[in-house]
Design brief:
Enolase-like, domain 1, alpha/beta, globular, five-stranded parallel sheet, FAD/NAD(P)-binding domain
Length: about 475
């Protein structure tokens, strides 16, 4: 039997890599985690999820002056100038990242996980070559290997990125001065999140997207609500425009569209998708492992690639590319590799978009149900109908439930408004256990809470069914 340096090697320390490493260590396995960056946590902690949500909270404070949690800690920013406000927000963001990274390092040390610094790429199916930033090379081997290298912003070669005027989402979160104006190219999750965040910080936003609708895969009522919110924020939205050229003219960015019309701003954010980090994995050393046409590594329900002892988790595996799902994929992969006790609940994934206001959903949309020829009914609970919604001034939020008419089974929950990312889990649990609309209608909720909107929506839905 071949001897290996480790039982399992993981490339990447983001949510998927972290969960895989800890699950394996708790099972008594010798674990090594390879990380090429000088900091742990991957995109989620260092340049994506946590930084953007921390700054979003500061933007929310700027617009609402709420007084709890992080908002309270940032309360002294109210009278600050835009630049002072941004700098204090960045300091707060950096403090959160440092604390989270410290906790992550402590967890790795407590579980006896070896951290191997350097760039990892395949030598063969069980061996990884590791090259440090100083150029030193070594090899490590393992029976199982998990790839969790994540993704990065897509940067087409014809876009003149300069980290000063023309930016991607990573470099935008590192700016030290708020621009007066910004063009956001894109209409997806990142584009919408950052557009609403920066407009709340006083930046004039113009959005340009070639698609006819923002976030077109979402429920139509939610999209319409968000679009109206964004227009009320004075975000200038231009859809169905094909971009011909993006360029820097002196100290400004210019976008020219196919009609010949052009737009200018002090800063441009290009947010048209992300691409997986596969190029430096040395996949050409493996004859049986290849990416799909988009660069992702296809996996089965256990996160296995075409080579059974090599697993892929997180963004590298493709949709849905969420921190929460990456963590679960990491646990699932290790549990399968070592035949650990694992119950795959097949829970409907909760999806959250941290725009201002938040969006979140679980289950089917109306469009999907129409395609499946399922007869359904919809119920709406408005934040304005709840005392809590009125207290916090979130009067335009809505909570929407969808149920099958014949069985009354809950099929989908869609929310826009404050705490949407938290509220969705109530509906998600009912969906998980195949509950019906009565489970929401007959449940007792604290008063006053936004969760009461579930009862309002459920009763509205039942009235339409009966």
């Amino acid at each position: 039997m071949k001897s290996f340096d480790y039982d399992i090697l993981i490339i990447g320390s983001g949510p998927g890599g972290k969960e895989a490493a800890i699950t394996a260590a708790q099972a008594g396995k010798k674990v090594g985690i390879i990380e090429r960056k000088p900091h742990l946590g991957g995109v989620s902690l260092q340049t994506g999820t946590i930084p953007s949500k921390a700054l979003r909270e500061a933007a929310y404070l700027r617009s609402r002056f709420a007084a709890r949690g992080m908002r309270k800690a940032l309360g002294n920013m109210r009278a600050a100038s835009d630049s002072e406000f941004l700098m204090e927000a960045i300091q707060t963001k950096n403090s959160i990242i440092e604390k989270q990274e410290s906790l992550l390092l402590s967890e790795f040390m407590r579980h006896g996980i070896s951290i191997i610094p350097g760039e990892g790429n395949f030598h063969d199916e069980h061996t990884i070559k590791v090259r440090t930033s100083s150029g030193q090379e070594s090899t490590v081997s393992a029976k199982f290997i998990i790839l969790a290298t994540g993704s990065r912003p897509r940067r087409p070669e014809d876009i003149p990125f300069d980290r000063e005027v023309i930016l991607d989402s990573t470099s935008l979160l590192k700016i030290r001065r708020l621009p007066e104006s910004m063009i956001v190219v894109g209409g997806g999750v990142i584009a919408c999140e950052l557009a609403t965040m920066f407009t709340m910080l006083g930046v004039s936003i113009t959005m340009i997207d070639p698609h006819p609708q923002l976030l077109s895969y979402l429920d139509q009522d939610i999209i319409s609500n968000l679009t109206e919110h964004m227009k009320d924020m004075e975000i200038d939205i231009h859809l169905s425009l094909k971009i011909s050229k993006i360029e820097r003219i002196n100290s400004k960015a210019r976008v020219t569209v196919s009609s010949g019309q052009s737009f200018e701003a002090q800063t441009l954010l290009y947010a048209m998708g992300r691409q997986p980090n596969t190029e430096k994995l040395g996949l050409d050393a493996l004859t049986d492992l290849a990416t799909d046409k988009y660069g992702y590594l296809p996996v089965n329900e256990n996160q296995q690639t075409q080579i059974p002892h090599i697993y892929t988790v997180g963004d590298l595996a493709g949709w849905p590319a969420l921190a929460a799902t990456a963590s679960e994929q990491g646990r699932r992969a290790v549990s399968h590799a070592y035949q650990l006790s694992y119950r795959n609940l097949n829970t409907p994934l909760p999806m959250a978009i941290y725009t201002i206001p938040e969006l979140s959903y679980a289950g089917y949309t109306e469009k999907e149900l129409l395609q499946k020829n399922i007869d359904y009914a919809v119920g709406i609970g408005k934040y304005s109908q709840s005392a809590r919604g009125q207290i916090i001034g979130s009067n335009r939020g809505i909570l929407k439930v969808i149920a099958e008419k014949s069985s009354k089974k809950l099929l989908g929950v869609h929310i826009i408004g404050e705490n949407a990312s938290e509220l969705v889990h109530v509906g998600q649990m009912v969906l998980r256990y195949n509950g019906d609309i009565y489970d929401l209608a007959n449940h007792v909720y604290n008063y006053p809470t936004l969760a009461e909107c579930y009862k309002t929506a459920a009763l509205d839905c039942l009235q339409k069914i009966q």
